[in-house]
Write a structure and sequence with these properties.
The structure holds two protein chains of two kinds.
Chain A: H1 3-26, E1 36-37, H2 40-49, E2 61-62, H3 77-112
Antiparallel strand pairs in A: 1-2
Chain B: H1 4-29, E1 45-53, H2 62-70, E2 72-81, E3 87-90, E4 102-105, H3 110-142
Antiparallel strand pairs in B: 1-2, 3-4
Helix pairs in contact in B: 1-3
The chains are: A mainly alpha, B alpha+beta.
C-alpha cells in the first residue's frame, strides 16, 4: 500500500466514523439505542495488511462501559462531541497530507518540462 | 464513502427534535384546555422516537451498504396520547362542570414539559453542530483539488 492509498483509507475511515457519530447523536433520545463505534487504529492496521482484491469489512461494535439511562439508551453527549471534533480534525489532516502529495507530483511534472 | 449521507442522518434528527418541540409546545399551550373537537379535556401527547435507516440507495456498494446497516437516522414513530386520567377540580361555576361541579382538566405538569422542551432544544443544537462538522469536512475534501 503506497502513501496515497494509505491516506485514502484514512479519509474513508474518518468519514465512516463521522457517520457513526452523526447516527449516535441523532439517536440521543431514541429508547434502546446503543452507542456504536469502530476502532480506528486497528481498522487502519487491518486495511494496510489487506490484499487489494479483498473487500473491506469494518468491525462496528457497541461501545461498552457507558452509563445506560432507564430507557436503555447509552449515548453520552460529551463522548460524542469530543469524537466529533477529533474526527473532523483527523479528516482535515488527511486532506492536507493528500494535497501535499498531489503537489509533490505536480512539482515533479513541472520540473521535467 | 460519501459524507452527504451523514448530513441526512443529522437532518433526520433536526426534523424529529423539532416535531417533538412542537408537540411539547402544544402540551404546554393546552394545559388548561377543557374542550376539544372530540370532546372532553385536551390529552397530553407523547412522542415516540425510533431509528430509521439512512436511505441513500443510490450509492450502492459494500461500504455504503455497511454504513446503512449501522448508521441510522431517527424519526418520530408515533405520537401517542398520555393515558393518565384528567385532573378533577371543583369549579361549579365553570360551564364545563359536571353535575357534581367538577371540571376535568388535562393532567399536564408545565415543569415536566419545560424540561422536555429544554432537552429537545439541546439535542437540536447538538445535531446542528454535527451537521456543521460534516459540512466543514465536505468543504475540506474539495480543497484536495485546489
Amino acid at each position: 500500500m503506497n502513501r496515497m492509498e494509505q491516506l485514502c483509507e484514512y479519509l474513508d475511515l474518518a468519514a465512516f466514523r463521522q457517520r457513526l457519530i452523526a447516527s449516535n447523536l441523532a439517536n440521543v433520545d431514541t429508547p434502546g439505542y446503543r452507542t456504536r463505534d469502530i476502532n480506528f487504529e486497528s481498522e487502519m492496521r487491518r486495511a494496510e495488511n489487506r490484499l487489494e482484491a479483498e473487500t473491506p469489512a469494518l468491525r462496528v461494535f457497541e461501545v461498552q462501559g457507558l452509563i445506560e439511562r432507564p430507557d436503555g439508551n447509552n449515548v453520552n453527549l460529551e463522548r460524542e462531541s469530543l469524537l466529533l471534533a477529533q474526527t473532523q480534525l483527523q479528516f482535515r489532516m488527511g486532506v492536507e497530507l493528500l494535497r501535499q502529495e498531489f503537489q509533490r507530483i505536480t512539482a515533479a511534472v513541472k520540473e521535467g518540462s | 464513502m460519501n459524507l452527504m449521507g451523514v448530513l441526512e442522518i443529522s437532518g433526520s434528527a433536526l426534523t424529529s427534535e423539532r416535531q417533538r418541540a412542537e408537540i411539547l409546545a402544544s402540551n404546554l399551550a393546552n394545559a388548561q384546555t377543557t374542550r376539544t373537537a372530540k370532546g372532553g379535556p385536551y390529552q397530553r401527547q407523547l412522542v415516540v422516537f425510533g431509528t430509521r435507516r439512512a436511505g441513500s440507495a443510490r450509492f450502492a456498494g459494500i461500504l455504503s451498504g455497511l454504513s446503512n446497516r449501522y448508521a441510522q437516522g431517527v424519526e418520530v414513530m408515533r405520537v401517542v396520547p398520555d393515558p393518565t386520567p384528567p385532573v378533577q377540580r371543583y369549579e361549579p361555576a365553570h360551564p364545563d362542570a359536571d353535575s357534581q361541579g367538577y371540571v376535568a382538566y388535562p393532567s399536564i405538569n408545565p415543569i415536566e414539559e419545560m424540561v422536555n422542551l429544554m432537552g429537545a432544544a439541546r439535542a437540536y443544537e447538538l445535531n446542528v453542530a454535527a451537521a456543521q462538522a460534516t459540512k466543514s469536512m465536505i468543504s475540506a475534501s474539495l480543497e484536495i483539488l485546489s
